[in-house]
């Protein structure tokens, strides 16, 4: 061999242990948010703020080998914070690889903050009319279109309740019964559209080693009653399909609430002999096929909007 011959070194000539250190430096952070929005808890609690860039996800696109080596590190070693699950639910239905990747997540944080519901409610009220109009005028007539429009009308009705009460403002002139009805509707919306939906998704999808639950702001939207002692039973899937997390840490609960939460988790163990109605809400499970069609309709409408704007 000539003395002038040079050996070409590449990234993959590095030992695997060194490559993994580089992956961790680029991809592992104290916390990774799965949006659509960051919980209000992080804007209000200075002890939880941290100054760091997000993970460098572009690294995963550089080569198939890097993706194969680095993605498990990204998914298994980060703590992922989920506020609302619809984005992940849709991605799981549409992209098999996303579903497979989600199975690798081992550490999850759930924040129950009523201010997130306020944000979600306003976002839905601002955007539902436009979405409904797009479906009305662009989707071909079918039973799925009619079902989607009916569902959106129900959502508008659910969220178009009286404004959330602010104790600093002048009192509203409403009867006790009206106030109670508004209060109960907001809680049902939390259960159906936010926390309950997220808990259903989490129980179905993940095999967790660590679950971090924050219930410091787990109240009704008026702040007049705590929900921490009941919220963990919400959702239409009642058991943890892949088993309970190995370790569960709950922040912000009283001793009495902790006892109820612990009992609730204990009752969500999946084991042989459970009846169907003990595992999931039978009526909601029947809507699963309809949801897929509804999702497909929304996808076609979205594509039409994109094509018009090109």
From TrEMBL:
Coiled coil: none annotated. Pfam families: DUF7730 (PF24864). Residues 48-122 form the DUF7730 domain. Transmembrane segments: none annotated. InterPro entries: AN11006-like (IPR038883), DUF7730 (IPR056632). PANTHER family: F-BOX DOMAIN-CONTAINING PROTEIN. This is DUF7730 domain-containing protein. It comes from Aspergillus sclerotialis. The lineage of its organism: Eukaryota, Fungi, Dikarya, Ascomycota, Pezizomycotina.
């Amino acid at each position: 061999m000539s003395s002038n011959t040079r050996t070409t070194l590449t990234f993959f000539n590095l030992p695997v242990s060194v490559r993994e250190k580089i992956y961790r430096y680029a991809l592992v952070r104290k916390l990774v948010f799965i949006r659509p929005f960051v919980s209000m808890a992080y804007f209000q609690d200075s002890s939880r703020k941290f100054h760091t860039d997000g993970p460098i996800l572009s690294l995963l696109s550089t080569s198939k080998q890097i993706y194969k080596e680095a993605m498990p590190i990204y998914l298994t070693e980060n703590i992922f914070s989920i506020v609302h699950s619809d984005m992940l639910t849709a991605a799981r239905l549409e992209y098999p690889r996303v579903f497979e990747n989600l199975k690798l997540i081992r550490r999850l944080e759930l924040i129950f903050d009523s201010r997130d519901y306020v944000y979600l409610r306003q976002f839905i009220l601002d955007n539902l009319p436009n979405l409904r109009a797009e479906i009305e005028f662009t989707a071909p007539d079918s039973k799925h279109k009619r079902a989607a429009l009916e569902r959106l009308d129900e959502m508008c009705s659910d969220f178009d309740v009286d404004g959330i009460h602010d104790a600093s403002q002048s009192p509203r002139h409403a009867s006790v019964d009206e106030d109670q009805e508004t209060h109960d509707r907001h809680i049902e919306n939390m259960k159906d559209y936010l926390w309950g939906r997220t808990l259903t998704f989490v129980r179905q999808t993940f095999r967790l080693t660590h679950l971090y639950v924050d219930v410091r702001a787990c109240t009704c939207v008026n702040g007049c009653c705590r929900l921490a002692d009941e919220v963990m039973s919400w959702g239409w899937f009642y058991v943890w399909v892949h088993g309970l997390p190995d370790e569960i840490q709950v922040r912000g609960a009283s001793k009495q609430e902790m006892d109820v939460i612990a009992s609730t988790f204990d009752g969500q163990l999946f084991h042989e002999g459970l009846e169907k109605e003990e595992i999931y809400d039978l009526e909601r499970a029947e809507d699963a096929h309809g949801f897929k069609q509804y999702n497909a309709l929304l996808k076609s409408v979205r594509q039409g909007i994109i094509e018009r704007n090109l």
